[in-house]
Amino acid sequence: MKQIYAFAEGNMEMRALLGGKGANLAEMTNLGLPVPPGFTITTAACHSYQTNHGLSDDLLQELDTHLTALEQATGKQFDDQTFPLLVSVRSGAPISMPGMMDTILNIGLNDQTVVALAKLTNDPRFAYDSYRRLLAMFGNVVYGLSEKAFDDVLTTMKRDKGYASDLDLTTTDLQAIIASFKQLYEQAGKTFPQAPKDQMLAAIAAVFESWNNHRAVIYRRENQIPEDLGTAVNIQTMVFGNAGEDSGTGVAFTRDPATGERALFGEYLLNAQGEDVVSGVRTPQPVAVLQAQMPAVYDQLATIATKLEQHYRDMQDLEFTIEHGHFYLLQARNGKRTPAAAVKIAVDLVNEGLINQHEAILRVAPKSISDMLHPEFDPEVLAAHTVLATGLPASPGAASGEVYFTAADAKMAHDAGHQVILMRQDTSPEDIEGMIVSQAIVTARGGMTSHAAVVARGMGATGVVGMHALSVDEHAKTATVGSTVLHEGDWVSVDGTTGNLYRGQITTTAAMVKESLATLLTWAKDASRMAVFTNADTPKDLEQALAFGADGIGLTRTEHMFFQPERLLQMRRLILAKDAAGRKTPLQALEKMQEQDFYELYRLANGKAVTIRLLDPPLHEFLPHDSREISEVAQDLGLEQNQLRERIAALKEVNPMLGHRGDRLAVTFPDIYEMQVRAMMHAVFRLADEGMKVTPHIMIPLTNSETELIWVRKLVTDQIKQLVATKGIKVDYEVGTMIETPRACITADKIANAADFFSFGTNDLTQLTFGYSRDDVGSFLPDYLSKGILPADPFQTVDTEGVGAFMQMAVEKGRATKPQLTIGVCGEVGGDPDSVTFFNQIGVSYVSCSPYRVPVARLAAAQQRCVQKNRRSSLHKAACSKKFQKNSIF
Known about the structure:
By secondary structure, the chain is α/β, with parallel strands linked by helices.
C-alpha cells in the first residue's frame, strides 16, 4: 500500500489520507502556485506506527525513494557539504487542529552543514540562527526538553549583552547559544543526532506521537473530532524567512476572522521564521504594511489569496514565507473564525455567487449562534482577572453585579437600583422574583437541567450551576470559595459560556441579531421541514423568541405564573383548603390572573400557535419550607403555625417528582384544571371580540395510559363545550399530551386515540429511563463524562440508544394510529443541535426551546434538511452517471 505521496500526486479530495495540510499543499501545487516541493506521509502510516510502535520497513523504503526524488528536484542533498538539503517536518490532521501537534524546522543542519549553509548564502549569522532554532525545536519536540530552558539561554544572552531583540544577536553570540543548547542535551542525557536522516526519522515519529499529546486530546474532545483520524506528516523543502531584511514570514486571512469583513488581514515579520510570529517573542506588523515595504510581494499575496478563496469557496488562512524577495506559500486552509464572522462570511459568499444558501447554512455551527446572542466580557479586561471558581455553564452570557444570597434581598436590591447577582446553594420556584431581577444566577448545586439552569435559559439570563467549590450561607449572607469569602454587596462577574466566576466588575459588550444572522436564519427557516417553537411563560419571553423567529409557543409552564407574591398567597390558600368549598375563593382569584396571562400571550402571538400546559408540579413546591417562611405564611393566612406545619407534613412526599403531580392533580383536584381551562377560554373570547381568532392548544402533562388521558381530556372538553355553548361562538381547539414516561412511549398507539398531538417532555423521560434525578445528577455526572462512561450529558443531548429508542417507538406507534399526528419536543434537548438532528431523523414535527436557543435549533433543523437534500442530489447524480455509462457507446 502506498504510504507517501509527492505533492504533485495528491489533491484536495484526499484529505482523509493526506490530512488537511497535505491535501491543500497538493492542490496548490497542481494550481501552479509557488509551493516549495515536498511529499506527504499518509494518515495510514500514522495508524501503522501506532499499531506497530515504530516506522515500518516499507515506509522507510518509500521514504528513501521520495527523498532521492526531492534531492533531484531541488539540486540539493542531505548532509551535502556544498548544497545541503534542509526540510521542515509538519503535522497535518484531516480536520484542522491549529497548534495542537508538532512541527520541526531546519531538519538537515548539523555541525558541518551549518558551515556549508553559511558559505552558500554568504550569511553566517543566518545559518547559525537556523541551527539554534533546530536544536531548540528538536530538543523540545523529540526529547521533551523544556522549551523554557532554551528560551532562558536566549534571554540571558540578550540581557547580558544589552540587546533588545533576537535580531541583535551576532554570529558569535549564536554560536555560543548553540553550545549552550548542546549542554542542555547533555544534562538531560541526550545527544543531538548529526545525521540528517536520523533527524528526519525522529521528527516523523515525534509528529505521529503528538497525535496523542495532552493538548491535542483535549482539543479533539472540545471540538468533537474523532480520535481515530490520525495525522499525516508533511516533508517540505525549507525556504527561509530569516535570511535577511528582504526576507520574512507571516500569516494572512482572506477576510477578517473576527468580523468577517472582506479584506486581507494578518501579520508578518521581516527576517524571521514562522514560530516567531506565533510565539510572541517579537511584535509583528499588520500585513497591510507589507504593501509599502514590498509592494510586488504584497500584490502577489493578494492575488493568490483571491484565487484560493474562489477556488476553495471559503475564507482562507495562509502561511507564507518570503526569501530574498521571492514569495512562497506554505499552507492554505479554511480559516478559523468567530461565530459572528462565520455568519457574515457565509452570507457574503452567497451574495458573491461562490456558494448557495444551503451551503451557507452548513457553514455555521449551530451551537456558535448562542454565543452571538448574549453579552460577552471584554477580552482585554477579562485577561486581567483570575478565575475564582468554575461550575456548569447553564446559560450563556456575561454579567456583573453585586452578590445577594436570597431572592428577597435580590429583589430589594434591584428595586433600590442595584445590579444583582443571585447566588444560592440551589434555587426553587419560590426564588423566581429574585431570579427575574438578577443579571446572573449562580448555584453551588444542581445540574444543567436543574431549576436554576432551566429558568436562567428561559429568561435569557446568565447562569452557572453546580459550582461545587462554592459554599453559600444565606443566614450569614456570605459565600466561601477556598479562603475567599464573598459578602453581600460584593461585586462579582459571571461567565455563563465558560462557567467561570470572577471577583469584581468586568466590562461587557452587548450582542444583537445583526443583518447577516437575520438573513441566514430566514434561509434556514425556508430550508427546514421542522418547525421551531419557544418555551415561554411570560410576554417578555415570547417577545424575545419572536424577535429570534420562533413559530409560536410550544410550551407554557403555567406553574411559573403562580410565584408572584399575590398569586403565591392564593395558591397556598388553594392547597391548604380542607375541601372543594374552601378552594372556591382562591380559584376565582387565580382564574382572573390566569385569564390575563393567557390573553397577553395569545394577543402577542397574533395567530401563531400557543400550547399551554396545565399545572404540572407537585403541590408541595408552592408551600413554605423553613421556619421563617412558615411563620410569615401562617400570619398571612390567619393560621396557627402548628396547623400549617401539619398540613405541610401531610402533603410531603418521599419522591414528589414521581408522586402527586401532572394529570394526577386533575384526578384529585379537578377544579384546578377546570379553572385553567375557563381562564383560557375567556381569554379566547376576549380576543374573538377584538377580531382575533385563537385556536387553543391545551397540553395535559405526564399521561401514562389511554384511560387516564380520556378521563382528563373529558374534564377539559366538558368545560370548553359548556363555555362555548354559553358564548354562542365556534372555537377550534386541540387537546394533546406530554409523553414523559417509558410506559407512555410503549402504549403510544393507544394514547394517540385520545390525543390531538404529542409533545415529548425529554427531561422527565430521561430521568425515568436512566433512573437519574436531574437535580442531583451533578454529584456524579462529571465523573461519568470524564471517564467516558457516558458520551454526553443525557439531559443536554438526547441519549439516542435508550431515550431516543423510546421516542422513536412513540412516534411510530402514535402515527400508526393517527398518520398525521403532530409530534413535538419541548424538553431541554429541544435546543441542542445534535438532538435536533436526531429528532429530524425520527420524524418529529417541531421542537420547542428557550428563546435564546430558537436560532440554534432553527439552524440545526435546517442543516439536517440540507444534508438530506445534498445526499439525495448526490445519489441522483451518481444514478444518472451510471445510466449514462451503461448507455454510452464509447
